[in-house]
Write a structure and sequence with these properties.
There is one protein chain. The protein is α/β, with parallel strands linked by helices and 306 residues long. The protein has one domain: Alpha-Beta Barrel (TIM Barrel). It contains 10 helices and 14 strands. It is globular, with a radius of gyration of 18 Å. The relative contact order is 0.18.
Length: 306
Amino acid sequence: MATRRTIITCAITGAIHTPTMSDALPLTPEQIVDQAVDAAKAGAAILHLHARDPQTGAPSIDPGLFEQIVPEIQSRCDAVINISTGGSLTSSIAQRIAPALVLQPEMCSLNMGSLNFSFHPLARRYESWKHDWEQAYVAGSEANIFRNTFADIREASEALKPHGIRFEHECYDVGHLYNLKFCMDEGQFEAPVFLQFVMGILGGIGAEIENLMVMKATADRLFRDGYRWSVLGAGNAQMRLATVAAALGGNVRVGLEDSLFIRRGELARTNAQQVAKVRSLIEGLDLAVASPDDARETLALRDAAA
């Protein structure tokens, strides 16, 4: 019997945390590349990528920055590249998918519904900030709706699918699973779909194990054997939910986008440190970690037979 292999995704920098919150957060293209390659060496099969303004550290969806990041990573490792189509709470879907259209990676993330995506409580933790933009950016998320309408989802699908790009369908609540099922019934996506249960973001489903079981049971009912799944636990739920997901037959996502910590009260030094920790937890369950080619085969990516 073939050994089941657990896919580790590493989300390298994201668009939530700011430079004040951790010196380990990669900001320049060079830092993002180096941390991504090290995460791949530590065991990450998929690299989930955002970009940052190298001068200020602010999140950016400038395709030119991704052009400095993606080819360099590809020249140094064989990990699956997954470009975010999130990246901004205020930009249009056309703006958010622009980097993926230029770079045409094997995968993109795609959010499956609108929500009150907020991280404004973080603004209370800091008395001073490294950059002028940070406090207003964090506090201002209280007023934002992260828009992902059915029209937005269709626009992203129609623009990216012709390039052979498949999706990490980010589901922040149970209703997002039903949204995806509707879109599949409309012919926008084909099985096997790759679900990322995003848990613990303010505005989405809480990071409790009971909620994970509800998400999985709902996916089982809607998609039967036509899906693969992974779990993202935000903040201090990261390793706990990853361990439960691996034990249940799922896959895992870690990275400084999702948590700045390696354990309670201790900031992670790098993304690779988080990957190494979750790998040890997976292997401690007597499970194997997937290689990039394992992930390509499992998720039916375009390079699976290359």
